[in-house]
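Allow me, if you will, to draw on your knowledge of protein folds for a short while. I have a record of one protein: its chain in single-letter code and its fold written as discrete structure tokens. I remain grateful for any guidance, and I place the record below:
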Amino acid sequence: MSALFEPYTLREVTIPNRVWMPPMCQYSAAPEGPSAGAPGDWHFAHYAARAAGGTGLIIVEATAVSPEGRISPYDLGIWNDTQVEAFRRITGFLKSQGTVPGIQLAHAGRKASTERPWNGGAPLGAEAHGWQPLAPSALSFDDRHPVPAELTVDEIHAVVGRFADAARRALDAGFEIAEIHGAHGYLINEFLSPHSNRRTDAYGGSYENRVRFALEVVDAVRAVWPDGNPLFFRISATDWLENGGWTADDTVRFAAELHAHGIDLLDVSTGGNASGVSVPTGPGYQVPFAARVRTETPMPVAAVGLITEAEQAEKILANGEADAVLLGRELLRDPSWARRAARELGGAVHVPDQYHRSV
């Protein structure tokens, strides 16, 4: 059997194949009012199509644990019961297709309060549904972004609590896997990296202090997330800086600690925390970071980054570089990528009865 179409079990959840969809923001929620942050028709159609296409696990886009944790005013959130009810429609359909529903819990930190990317992505002020971003240190992401407010220790503790509350709601909404967003220059990543964390208290300075917030979030979420359900962590394995940033060595060290704190799989990406860096992109360019974590720690990993072809994905798994692959842009282009790859590799995926003619 093709490695790509073997089931994969973590704790008490079995994912039918290794073709997974990573979180990709749609920037399509209402920015204010009673439905702010709730998924709507676009989100349902978007995720439903990939489930009908055979994707084994769908991790719903970065979903903010609080209003100020959104990247843009148009992001999804899970800080109230209205949002929970709206998500149930999506999780119910995904399960009906044999797809495991996952959700990424997120806080954007200093990269919050921006316009949608197709409108330029510029920071927004209060007149355009914007707000004051928060961060570990009063350092802006780049010249375009405002200087964020530095979180107090009490505020840090409050954010930890919001992650736990969001996890409770995610479970109520029907999600079976939760992922903590610790990548791409958002709040948790900002605490991890010395490039963005200049604190001198218990949450800054040494490696041990910089990882403290992330581990507190993990512990708080794991405490409310059922023992039978997997918990993922998404990480940027490197800031792509020559000096003064988070490194691959840090990632390997941290992965072992995350595993000890109850994280079941590391979703390995890179970058996003430092502006103006040079990233050597190419097919599978982030896979070596995932492979190193898998080789040097007990942590299972998922690989991401310009994985587009069935044979390419199969080779990553067959070579032992990852336990699963996450296809982002390719699943935007082809919602039925998993079904096409199964035909190419001799695998099998769920096909809706209504599509029996396509088998």
